[in-house]
Amino acid sequence: MKGNSAHGIKGTVKYLLMFVAAALVLSFFVPIKLAKGSLKDVKEEEFFIVTFVAEQSTEGGSCILLGDQDGYFDDEDAHYVTLDGVDFRDKLCWSIYNNYTEFIVYGTLEKGFWRQEEYGEKYPQYTLHSEDWDIYKEVRGGVHKKYLTVYDLKWVERICSRPWE
How far is 127 from 81, CA to CA, in rounded Å? Predict the structure, then answer.
């Protein structure tokens, strides 16, 4: 009897491990957020197209306002924008949002000015009060091009990174 129960436990553990491994592999293919293929797919009335551009360090960067519900702006109308509210950078891995992935951000845009007192100049300052976001066109730097999986989220990046980083 003892031999059979030990064999039964080993078999159960073996099947349990196989189940966990299969679940991890399958989660690689399960979409958690689909990319919007065109602006016609968006149901909201007011939204903005934004991308993230890394600057000279791996920690810094800026969001750039590329367009709105009417399409892309001309190059001279693209501006740096500050996100206030829901931010895709809080949820996604660096490799996703730092790869010129474009995002549709829902919310309202506030335009203000900041002064550089020294020179007496005024510069436009844009703040996007964001409520939600979607991927626009394709996911760059991710597992799949048309949707996000759990492996594209920031918490996975934290788990998989080396402790000394």
Answer: 6
Residues of the chain below pLDDT 70: 1-7, 56-60, 115-117, 156-165
Question: Does residue 56 lie in a domain region?
Answer: yes
Count of the separate structural domains present in the chain: 1
Asked, for residue 22, whether it belongs to a domain, the answer is: no
Work out whether the CA dihedral 59, 65, 66, 70 comes out positive or negative: positive
- Measured in whole angstroms, how far is the alpha carbon of residue 153 from the centre of its chain? 7
- pLDDT for the residue numbered 127: 92
Eight-class DSSP state of 110: E
In a domain, 15, yes or no: no
**pLDDT value for 129:** 95
Q: What is the chain's length?
A: 165
Q: Is 49 left (phi over 0), alpha (psi -120 to 50) or beta?
A: beta
Domain around 139: 31-160
pTM: 0.74
141, part of any domain: yes
Q: Identify the pLDDT of residue 158.
A: 59
Q: How far apart are CA 64 and CA 126, in angstroms?
A: 10
Which pair of tokens denotes residue 97?
């949002």
